[in-house]
Amino acid sequence: MFDTPQLEAYLRRIKVPKPRRADAEALRRIHRGHLTTIPYETLDIQLGRKVSLDPQALFEKIVESRRGGFCYELNWTFALALRAAGFEVTLVEGGVHREKRGDSAWGNHLVLLVEADGRRWIADGGLANGFIEPVPLEEGTARQGPFTHRLERLDSETWRCFPDPHGSVSSFDIRVSPQRIEDFEARCLELSTSPESSFVRVLSVYLPGEPRMSRLVSRTFASSGPDLPDGKTERLVPDREQFASILFDHFRLGPQTLGPAEVDRLWDKATAQHEVWLSQKAA
Questions:
Q1: Residue 157, SS3?
Q2: Element (H, E) at 9
Q3: Nearest to 208 by CA among 265, 155, 146
Q4: Cα distances (Å, whole numbers) of residue 221 to 86, 88, 105, 134, 213
Q5: How many CA atoms lie within 13 A of 219 on its CB side?
Q6: CA-atom Rg of the chain in angstroms
Q7: Is-contact 144 225, C-beta < 8 A?
Q8: Is 96 in contact with 111 (CB distance < 8 Å)?
Q9: 128 torsion bin: left (phi>0), alpha (psi -120 to 50), beta (else)
Q10: Element at 187 (helix H, strand E)
Q11: From first to last of its 283 residues, what are the pLDDT tens digits of the chain?
């Protein structure tokens, strides 16, 4: 877990005061701060950089350099911080869209289970447009501002989560047997390097919010929420300058590891990916 100075720096990053006790209210504040401050993003993958799950490397990237990451990076950072704040945290295996993809989806997501106030909570800081606050590990619905999430128990070990449909993930499964971060390293490497991986093929940045969630996918910038006509708005990013503005001003990514040369490369990739999408759409 993080040491005390690292925890304090993480809490400053997410603009949350240090909790006096590890209770459900503190968990909600930290979860909300993490989700609404640290973007889900695949930019290092797009740049061909190695994704590291080393705690010091994650601290330097996500806290000091004010970057985001994808699920393994974000939720492992979240777990390190929560443990340092006094919470009991269990890493568990997730399967995004297992309902459609079957058991091959297991391991494509890392999820946290956290004990607080005598209840077990799903904490997920790495689901793109997911839960803004933790959700009790109990069957039923959870209303969070304008968004409604639902949880269904499949068997004694397995649960299915249905995030609000305005988000990017229709469902994901979890099984509650404890895992170690080492159990996710091979899948993290595969999904961050394989040419078949969607994380390699498509540039994406997401940030939950209320009343709207936002996302950048290649050159398409979109907002979604129940207050919008048809539930979403989207537009094509016209040039590199607006692309950079979205990264640094809207998603508030730190520029320390994303200089002009890296932004040029990312813009070129986003443009090429958009052209591929247009050709596939026309076919």
A1: coil
A2: helix 4-14
A3: 146
A4: 38, 37, 27, 27, 11
A5: 19
A6: 18
A7: no
A8: no
A9: left
A10: helix 185-193
A11: 899 999 999 999 999 999 999 999 999 999 999 999 999 999 999 999 999 999 999 999 999 999 999 999 999 999 999 999 999 999 999 999 999 999 999 999 999 999 999 999 999 999 988 899 999 999 999 999 999 999 999 999 999 999 999 888 999 999 999 999 999 999 999 999 999 999 999 999 999 988 889 999 999 999 988 888 888 899 999 999 999 999 999 999 999 999 999 999 999 999 999 999 999 988 7
Of the candidates 155, 175, 210, the residue with the CA atom closest to the CA atom of residue 91: 175
Which active-site residues does the annotation give?
71, 109, 124
Q: Tell me the domains of the chain and their CATH numbers.
A: 189-282 (3.30.2140.10)
Cα separation, 101 vs 38, in Å, equals 28
pTM exceeds 0.90 for this model: yes
The answer to whether the CB of 72 falls within 8 A of the CB of 53 is yes
Q: Which amino acid is at 20?
A: R
Q: Give the integer Cα–Cα distance in Å for 240 and 238.
A: 7
Strands (E), the chain: 40-41, 88-96, 109-116, 119-123, 135-136, 140-144, 147-153, 158-162, 172-179, 204-207, 213-217, 220-224, 232-236
Tell me the C-alpha distance between 5 and 97, whole Å: 38
Question: CA 197 → CA 46, 101, 162, 201, 230, distances in Å?
Answer: 11, 14, 23, 6, 30
User: Rounded to an integer, what distance in angstroms lies between the CA atom of residue 96 and that of residue 206?
Assistant: 16
Query: 């979240």: which residue's tokens?
Result: 78
